[in-house]
Design brief:
The protein is 41% helix and 28% strand. The chain has 5 helices and 8 strands; from the N terminus they run αββαββαβαβαββ.
């Protein structure tokens, strides 16, 4: 296999430009505005000056000039260590993702002629899901001659919803869709 260094450089350059486009933050020479409001590394305002002067001040302190408010007039730039800023920003985003809870939809399948103990086991599973903060999809599949008795399925669904108790809200009542009867339950929110 032949290795082409020119092609490698082109691919690397494209990856870097894609990474910059995803970031959207302008730093140092990327800032093309004539006038900028500059904030120093200590948080003190240095005033309105040209981009060249602001960049010179940042280079003297071995820091970066970062545009933090591009929509302002004139745009606001801050002198800071950009690598440290990106690291702290990534750390905050990771912490926010860790504290997020995604609501999943768990499914509990009942049958038309379900026995008491099976019913209680399915009920306990559904309550466990709801206490965890997830939504529950309760379904009954009608097979063969069972299609002639949807009222038995409705009664089973009603009994299941009542057995769940007060901490549960019926988000979507029981409805027959083809051969399946579906009902959605969600945890009650305290507002």
């Amino acid at each position: 296999m032949y290795f082409c260094p020119h092609l490698f450089i082109v691919v690397l350059w494209r990856c870097l430009t894609i990474a910059k486009k995803n970031n959207n933050t302008q730093i140092n020479e990327e800032i093309r505005d004539k006038e900028l409001r500059v904030i120093g590394s200590d948080g003190q305002q240095l005033g309105i000056m040209s981009a060249r002067d602001a960049l010179n001040i940042a280079e003297q302190k071995n820091l970066d000039l970062v545009k933090i408010a591009p929509q302002a007039t004139p745009p606001v730039c801050k002198i800071m260590d950009y690598g440290k800023y990106r690291f702290e920003q990534a750390k905050r985003e990771k912490e926010a993702r860790k504290n997020q809870h995604t609501v999943d939809i768990k499914e509990v399948r009942l049958s038309l002629n379900i026995d008491t103990h099976d019913f209680n086991t399915k009920l306990n599973n559904a309550l466990k899901f709801i206490n965890h903060g997830d939504k529950v999809k309760v379904s009954i599949r009608f097979r063969g001659r069972e299609m002639g008795h949807p009222e038995i399925g409705l009664e089973t669904m009603r009994r299941f919803a009542e057995a769940c108790g007060d901490g549960v809200v019926i988000e979507k009542p029981a409805k027959l869709e083809g051969r399946n009867m579906l009902m959605f339950l969600a945890p009650k929110t305290n507002k």
